[in-house]
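BACKBONE STRUCTURE TOKENS:
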Amino acid sequence: MRPLTSQDPRAIGEYRPLARLGAGGMGVVYLARSAGGALAAVKVIRAEHAADPGFRARFRREAEAAARVSGPWAVPVTGADTEAPEPWLATAFVPGPSLGESVEEQGPLPVATVRALGARLAGAIAAVHGAGLLHRDVKPGNVLLALDGPRLIDFGVARHTGATALTATDMVIGTPGYLAPEQASAGPVGPACDVFSLGCVLVYAATGRRPFGQGSPAGLLFRTVHEEPDLDTLAPGLLPLVTDCLAKDPADRPTAQEVARRLAAEGTEWEVPGLATAVAERSAAALALPDPEPPTAVQDPGPPRRPSRRRVLTAGAAGAVLLTGGGTAAWVAGRRQGTAGSPPALPTYRIGLHADLTGPGRSVGLAHERGVRLAVDDHNSREDKAFRLALRTEDDGGDTSRARGVADRLIADPRVLAVIGPTGDVVTEAIAGRYEKARLAQVVVAARSTTVRSGTESESLCVLRPFDSALTGGLVHYLSHVERFARVFVIEDREDPRSSWAITNVIRDVAIKGTEITVHPVEAATDSFAPVARAAVAAGAGAVVHAGSSAVRGARCATDLVAAGFTGTGLSVGPVLAPAFLRDAGAAAEGWVFSEAYSEPAELPSAKGFTAAYRERFGSAPATWAAEAYDAVGLIARVGRPGRATGSARDGVGQRILRGDYRGITRRLSFYDTTHQVRYESGIYLYRVDKGRARFLGPYE
């Protein structure tokens, strides 16, 4: 990223530029922020090109076609204005390095990762072809690497199949060294040219070298047309497919769909050396850029001249989930885009996100950030909104001392209406006390526990999930109403005495008619659960509850139970349901039931629109806690509008949340009057391990 110059625009439609991402003969690409706070890459075409009526007509057609490209591995178009003096096209921002940068810095990718790269890029290219486009510049610089896979970018030279080029006749478009022979000779092109380029990209990813060597553009073009590629160092497992992709005759190349099928059939694995660090650094750098809004009161800029094809929460043809004044999710299809004239000025309030985005809990922090951004954009898309929302993100890296600084900075910003977070495991009294003293509502989504002494002492701390100590209620309900057992063994894993006691105490003290419950401790110094597993089998236990918090020890318990011949049902609570449990327990994990505090939005009818929007924007299923973070924004927005009383806009927000009743996309959110704890009845969910993954069963009741 490079700083903006005095010649750069300060507004591009609804986007405000933050920095330059690149520049070329066609125009400039900016990192920009939407009115709702979402980051985007906005390509602005230079005026001299836009002055050509033929160019503008082609750009208009191609922008409309690019907006139809969908799929998890193609970066989506989020907005465009083809009629502006300098037309522009906006796409989602991907904070990862390009494939070229990664290979240059870290070396070639592992073979399994190259297969994953090829399968997913082939899928993106197939989506481009399905929209009636050719990409024509598939190269390492146009492939961005995200944590879950690659993203194909830059449709700036994409064109309709059979359409005339964006530039002069017979001019070669693309990058020498990655062009198909028919492109290199300025001949007629079709979808097969992108497959040839993909083959070149795979060679580079696997070997660090171009298949037609280095040198001048003319030399590269000549070798591409007349010589065979250098594939001597390519892994044998990749050689047949790449050879087919690099066939001189387009008719001899496989289609993009065939490439995707062949690579996927061989198995794929996405592990890119150094990628997590690079993404974290770039994300932090992007999020640390100064807010483009002026420091004084922010006014609503009004709707963009030509609104984006995609609303933030699209759900295909079904419509969108919108935050309504009453707090419920409403399905709206075919929404009108507003009327002529300037809309009234609206105040803008900020949601502060206090998150770990670069430390050990960055996956949870990123899930919060994505869910919050979708909700902020969704709120701002409402035609009946009384105020706008913006997002201010602060990263504490999972460090306690940094967290204090983050809290102080958010408190010092008078435009912050409420804070979501921190996103770590524990709400510390030191941080909660800061927000409480400043009368700034702190809405906690994912923390497992707290060091705060009493909820009744706080009018600002609003925790939206049952703490881990309350999750045992879900197991009790399962044992009482779903599967009934004559004998239940509770294995009290004393590695974590507080957690094991909390689980054991609840189950032991609840009388389940017809069920005998016995408790068997396993000391922290003991690595084996084999003796107690044998005892459970000898006693004829139908169910075993692992009362602990360690995924590794939970997996050991599961494997020792199977080894002892146990065939009943295993149960535990959320902290044990982690990747380490599924990995280490393997087949022994099958059938285990877990009580958790997060939902699976893809399985909730009320969250279908959210799930579709998340997939469209981020290319994957919603991450854990993203939907709950979305609901946190809805809860704040419902009570956030200040009344006529004077004072700070943040005054009283926490109290109104604690006294409110909000129906979100994941659950109903309300709080007990006496303790200020969230009502857990609708906030505990059950999962069962099925074929190696945790399958969502639904709310525990």
Remarks:
- The longest strand covers residues 16-23.
- Residues 156-172, 293-342 have pLDDT under 50 and may be disordered.
